Amino acid sequence: MPGIVIVGVQWGDEGKGKATDLLGERTDWVVKFNGGNNAGHTVVIGGEKYALHLLPSGILSPGVNAVIGNGVVIDLEVLFQELDALGARGIDTSKLRVSANAHVITHYHRTLDKVTERFLGKRQIGTTGRGIGPAYADKINRVGIRVQDLFDESILRQKVEAALDQKNHLLVKIFNRRAISADEIVEDLLSYADRVRPMVCDTGLLLNDALDRGEVVVFEGGQATMLDVDHGTYPFVTSSSATAGGAATGSGVGPNRLDRIVGIVKAYTTRVGAGPFPTELFDEKGEWLRKTGFEYGTTTGRLRRTGWYDAPITRYATRVNGITDLVMTKLDVLTGLDEIPVCVAYDVDGTRFEEVPVNQTDFHHAKPIYETFPGWSEDITGVRRFEDLPQTAQDYVLALEEMSNTRISVIGVGPARDAVIVRHDLVD
Question: Where's the active site on this chain (predicted)?
Fold first, then answer.
């Protein structure tokens, strides 16, 4: 099975980097196919913690070819900051390849992101302010800047001037900010051209050739299903396709090349930013989950909202993505709880919903219907076989598996790289 997609099941931060890293030794290629530096992966290797924002986490595995696909929007300053930081720690990043068709985040995208969010006031979406949304908007409006444009100064200048014709009116007349000069943007982008040039190629061709040779290609999604621009809790979503379908459009391979879809889900639920969250906890249990699970954004440092496991969301993600396997992370965080509630359905004004309501208003008003499971007190961070887990922990996992309509193949029991229980191989 050479084509494996990894996607988040909830609202992100589920531990996708850990899953990619788990596959690392048998992986030939890892592709980031959506998003930008608005999402983060934290990977722990040999006691060393690595926080990645733009680079695919597979870049930490020796021998793996890392690719940034056409579906990504790239902040070149962040790209080289990350590469330099990894290089300083002895990580070889020479195999990184970047799609010529990937779009570039500019200074004006970051500026517009921040001022627009402030302008929304109480209607804020909760963006990271890193220019991701405005860059994708330009892509759809066909006024975006692509990586390949950096290699033709004349075309680059034309595109920047065309984009700023409209944006400067917005900045000056609506947001009371200074106009941005085209010279400033062009000079900044050209400063990266020579360094990025050796990395740039037709990554779609590269990946299709690799698949033809039977090599294992892992497509690593940013954000998660409930943040997908089409299938998430719109408008409180990201601006890209974070579901499995985005792996094909964001990398340049056909959907028939995707053999296995792996969904990453926490043993509870978190969310960063605004938007509905039925199982959110506002009491001491929510704060306990946050502190015990260290639920702070890798990219922003913002406190993550915390809540109990939501089975309808997992079923929804399984259906939308065609998930074949689940990787459940952070089961160890629940250690010490006497009881663990699980949302099995919703109550919306007296009506029971077994699935995620299609109507946005209904989902905003959904109240969780819980089933409670007994907890465990034993330390499970050293457990490597499912049958060695406390019986109540086994029962919890098996119950969630049944509710999810797909198998739980891997269970994370700690932050370390090897702190996993493998029930089913993700590659064979």
Answer: 13 (proton acceptor), 41 (proton donor), 139
In the chain, what are the domains?
A: 3-93+202-422 (3.90.170.10), 103-197 (1.10.300.10)
CA atoms within 13 A on the CB side of 181: 4
CA–CA dist 298, 287 (Å, integer): 18
Terminal CA-CA length for the chain = 7
Mean pLDDT of all residues in the chain?
92
Q: How far apart are CA 45 and CA 39, in angstroms?
A: 20
Binding site members for GTP: 12-18, 40-42, 304, 330-332, 412-414
Residue 203 near residue 251 (C-beta atoms within 8 A) = yes
Q: Has 95 been annotated as catalytic?
A: no
How much is the pTM?
A: 0.91
Q: Is residue 352 packed enough to be buried (19+ CB in 10 Å), middle (13-18) or exposed (0-12)?
A: exposed
- Omega of the bond leading into 276 within 30 degrees of 0 (cis): no
CB atoms within 10 A of CB 257: 17
Give Cα 379 distance to the centre of its chain. Answer: 29
**pLDDT computed for residue 123 by the predictor:** 65
Tokens read off for 137: 């908007």
Give the containing element (helix H, strand E) for 204: helix 203-212
Binding-site positions for Mg(2+) read: 13, 40
139 is catalytic: yes
pLDDT-based confidence at residue 41 (cuts at 50, 70, 90): low
